[in-house]
Specification:
The chain contains seven helices and no strands. By secondary structure, the protein is mostly helical. The chain has one domain. It is globular and about 50 Å long. The two termini are 16 Å apart.
């Protein structure tokens, strides 16, 4: 019974990583189904627009990914031992809502640009708070890395845009997704290990 409980806890703790993998899988499948897509010219959100093959796949895939991210936000709250971590879980929950809204308001709809941009801003704010929580709870190196990367990512993105410009929205999104992957990789083990102790 104890082993089953631990397995459930670990599975719950990995929902953040599962969210990222689900989003990447959806992007990869949509890319294969839409040969017109050019990474250096288009945006991943174009897979959910009117000219895409099976736009429902991209949009519902993001909503599913958002549900997994929402589950991870609740997990962070469940294992939180500090107010900063509880606050971070709330920020992460809001970012999951905005991820779902990208699917609800696909490319070509009026709110799309706002919800897709705000998802990245919100998720970076959430991980900055998660990193701060990790830091005050003793994981100083990992916490500083997570907080530093999450805090600096939006400003670096704006700097790249101002100095050189992103080749395409897809390139900027891919970099943003890679940063989220690094943040999840650095923070997930800390919380899973804590919940098992």
């Amino acid at each position: 019974m104890v082993n089953m409980r631990k397995a459930v806890i670990v599975a719950w703790g990995l929902t953040g990583v599962a969210s990222l993998l689900a989003a990447l899988t959806v992007i990869a499948v949509c890319w294969m189904l839409n040969p017109w897509f050019i990474f250096w010219e288009d945006a991943f959100s174009d897979f959910g627009g009117s000219r895409a093959c099976c736009p429902w796949l991209y949009n519902w895939g993001l909503i599913f990914s958002a549900l997994l991210l929402l589950a991870f936000s609740l997990y962070v709250y469940r294992v939180a031992r500090h107010k900063v971590e509880a606050f971070a879980s709330a920020l992460l929950l809001v970012s999951a809502i905005f991820l779902a809204l990208i699917g609800v308001f696909p490319s070509g709809t009026r709110p799309h640009t706002f919800v897709s941009t705000w998802f990245f801003v919100q998720v970076y704010m959430a991980f900055a708070a998660i990193g701060a929580g990790m830091y005050v709870q003793g994981a100083r190196l990992d916490g500083a890395f997570v907080a530093g990367l999450a805090s600096s990512a939006p400003f670096i993105g704006l700097l790249v845009e101002a100095l050189h410009g992103w080749p395409s929205a897809a390139v900027a999104e891919a970099v943003g997704i890679a940063v989220i992957g690094a943040l999840l990789a650095a923070s997930t083990p800390f919380y899973v290990k804590r919940s098992l102790s």
